[in-house]
Amino acid sequence: MRIALLAPLKRELSAETRGGRPRIVYNLAEGLVSRGHEVTVFGTGDSRISGNLIPVIPKALFHLPPVENEFYRHLIGLCRMMEELRKRKGKFDIIHNHLYPEVLAILFARELGTPMLTTVHTQMTSELGEFFSHYPETHFAPISNRQKELYPGLNYTETVYNGIDERAFAFSGNPGTYLLFVGRIREFFTNEGGEKIDPKGVTDAIRVAQKAGVPIKIVGNVESYAFYEREIAPHLSDTIQFIGNPKSAEGELALAERVKLYQGAKALLAPVHWEEPFGIVMIEAMSCGTPVIAYRRGAIPEVVEDGNTGFVVEDEQTMVAAAAKIEQIDRAACRAVVEKRFTIDAMVSGYEAVYRKILASKASLPAGQG
């Protein structure tokens, strides 16, 4: 198949890239190329991929010098991508949209005339769902069943779970004594229900560790330094540690450092307060043998097998109780689930099946309706 992948512009695509969305697109591109597909990636000029690359900006936005208006620069880059895609109208069998934000490419789907599949890598809100509903010809690939439940009625395909390179996240059966939190660190925001929330739950993780009397290491790209100074820094000590540079919005830990932290943790805490669309850090931890303790939000129950690869809990109190019995979880079982369900190979196979189904349905339409 001739496949166009529309990649996010904030980070480059490479084996070392940071950020969940670009890592998924990189792994998908490499997997599709290895299976003989003709893959063209529209993305940043510093991306390093095996397929064809159409650069629309010279470097990832995170690597460009600051400008007065970052929004304009990002938007201009996305518009350039659409222009490059227009120039190649009719050159692809399918276009797979992974943009951040997802919405711009969808505006061009009808004009391009090529089937477009959009993977939504964020929480499915009513605002997003309502917008998507105006484009019934566009296909949407959910990364969890929960996404479909949040806004039913869209032109959904089968669910395709995210996958990782399990070889990079090697198993360890000899953990240390600390808990681990990995996630974006950003300011509180108000959700659709009117609640003020800490989406990834780093403040909950700190309280859980304190109540459990267990050390915790915190890793994450700090998107709001004011939040870090107010909510995290006052708690830091010998037992509550922030790993990395809190003044970096990108996160500076190399892959090998992150893997070592996963391998040494007795559990990963994921006290999320939003409708988590998937949660890549959970399968990275499980690949290393580290069980996950997470709140029952979003896709958590689909990713974490309660009592087998960790515990799905309701609140802070039950998370503390779960931490006290985490040794009941077999670390080898965590690894086995990743190898069975959450590999790059499984993800690529899932998307291949979706592509073929979309193309088969197009071929069966009467002339002029494809």
Give me the secondary-structure topology:
Layout: E1 2-6, H1 20-34, E2 38-44, E3 52-57, H2 70-87, E4 94-97, H3 103-107, H4 109-112, E5 116-119, H5 126-132, E6 139-141, H6 145-150, E7 178-182, E8 189-190, E9 196-197, H7 202-212, E10 216-219, H8 225-232, E11 240-243, H9 255-264, E12 265-270, H10 280-287, E13 292-295, H11 300-303, E14 310-313, H12 316-324, H13 331-341, H14 344-363
Parallel strand pairs: 1-2, 1-4, 2-3, 4-5, 5-6, 7-10, 7-12, 10-11, 12-13, 13-14
Antiparallel strand pairs: 8-9
Number of domains: 2
CATH topology of the largest domain: Rossmann fold
Mean pLDDT: 94
What is the number of strand segments? 14
Can you tell me the CATH superfamily of the largest domain? Glycogen Phosphorylase B
Computed Rg: 21 Å
CATH class annotation of the largest domain:
Alpha Beta
Q: What is the overall number of helices?
A: 14
Strand order in the largest sheet: 3-2-1-4-5-6
Outline the biggest β-sheet. 6 strands, parallel
Classify the secondary structure makeup into a structural class.
alpha/beta
- H/E element string? EHEEHEHHEHEHEEEHEHEHEHEHEHHH
> What general form does the structure show?
globular
Characterize the structure shown.
- Residues 200-329 form the Glycosyl transferase family domain.
- This is Glycosyl transferase.
- The chain has helices at residues 20-34, 70-87, 103-107, 109-112, 126-132, 145-150, 202-212, 225-232, 255-264, 280-287, 300-303, 316-324, 331-341, 344-363; strands at residues 2-6, 38-44, 52-57, 94-97, 116-119, 139-141, 178-182, 189-190, 196-197, 216-219, 240-243, 265-270, 292-295, 310-313.
- It is 37% helix and 16% strand.
- 45% of the residues are buried.
- The chain contains 14 helices and 14 strands.
- The longest helix has 20 residues, at 344-363.
- The chain has a six-stranded parallel beta sheet.
